Amino acid sequence: MTLFSHAPSRVDFSNHAAVPQALFPCAEFLPQARGLAPLVLRTQIASDAPARELLLDAALGAGRRAKTSELFRTGRLPAHGLALSATHGGELVGTVRLWNVSAGGKPALLLGPLAVSGAHRSLGIGAALMQMAIERARTLGHGAILLVGDAAYYQRFGFQPELTTSLDLPGPVERARFLALELAPGALAGATGMVVPTGARERSRPRTLIRQRVKSAQAA
Ligand SMILES: CC(C)(COP(=O)(O)OP(=O)(O)OC[C@H]1O[C@@H](n2cnc3c(N)ncnc32)[C@H](O)[C@@H]1OP(=O)(O)O)[C@@H](O)C(=O)NCCC(=O)NCCS
């Protein structure tokens, strides 16, 4: 069942460009039909964590924590201003986060995971999260974004494998899925070698706390 049964098949995000690009606004996109719950894209907040982790488990499976990209996230905070949530009627339905890295000596971001809840897919929410993340990253002065994902999806945002041929990840990766986008032309020129995390470290053990909250949410 679609939650947007009275709305167009895809949510109209065409007003996205009008969203003020002052840092970290709360951007709200209303479906065109009246009476429907608002769809909101905004900066992630701490209380999003349990729903975000449940969404990621459902979208990516329990094995998601064994992925090479997870090495860049464990024990780190996302890049400032670059953790985004999509909510519908207050329910978290989409998430994307970006992480500070050094790409062979060049400062860059690693994007992931991106996920949208199964009931809300093909409405343009994934694309809207990607566009907002890319625009924010550019506004914040970042030069390049790396990710590991399906080129068939990410190439529409300009990501390409050719930019990562001289880069390595600290674990197995399919080269065709190791993609990058330059926000500033030439930002990855001469980037050679290992990609390593450079983000701020988490202060406590929030993953334990998040797991406890996820269990509470599941039990409720
Ligand atoms: C990938 C994902 C985030 C897309 O979210 P979404 O809100 O449905 O995306 P959009 O509405 O912007 O785009 C949907 C389109 O992308 C296509 N698409 C989705 N995943 C794709 C993939 N892996 N490869 C190619 N195309 C894909 C859909 O078929 C759809 O095509 P259509 O417009 O012709 O119907 C979502 O499918 C998801 O959460 N998947 C599971 C988690 C995942 O694989 N995340 C990416 C790994 S980092």
Account of the 3D structure:
The chain has 220 residues and is an alpha+beta fold. It has a single domain (14-197), classed as Aminopeptidase (3-Layer(aba) Sandwich), CATH 3.40.630.30. It contains 4 helices and 10 strands, in the order E-E-H-E-E-E-E-H-E-H-E-E-E-H. The chain has helices spanning 49-60, 125-139, 151-154, 206-219, and strands at 27-29, 39-43, 83-88, 91-103, 106-111, 115-116, 144-148, 167-168, 178-182, 193-197. The chain starts with 26 loop residues before the first strand and ends with a helix. The structure holds coenzyme A. Coenzyme A binds at residues 59-60, 112-116, 121-127, 149-150, 152-153.
Assign the CATH architecture: 3-Layer(aba) Sandwich
> Class in CATH?
Alpha Beta
Q: Which residue ranges are poorly predicted, with pLDDT under 50 across at least 5 consecutive positions? A: 1-9, 14-26
The count of DSSP E runs of length 2 or more, i.e. the number of strands, is 10
C-alpha Rg (nearest Å) = 17 Å
Question: Total number of helical segments?
Answer: 4
Ends distance: 24 Å
CATH fold title: Aminopeptidase
Counting structural domains, the number is 1
The hetero compounds bound to this protein are:
coenzyme A
Q: CATH superfamily, please?
A: Gcn5-related N-acetyltransferase (GNAT)
Please write the string of helix (H) and strand (E) elements.
EEHEEEEHEHEEEH
Query: Any idea what the shape is?
Result: globular
Biggest sheet descriptor: 10 strands, mixed
- Beta content comes to 15-25%
The helix-and-strand class reads: alpha+beta
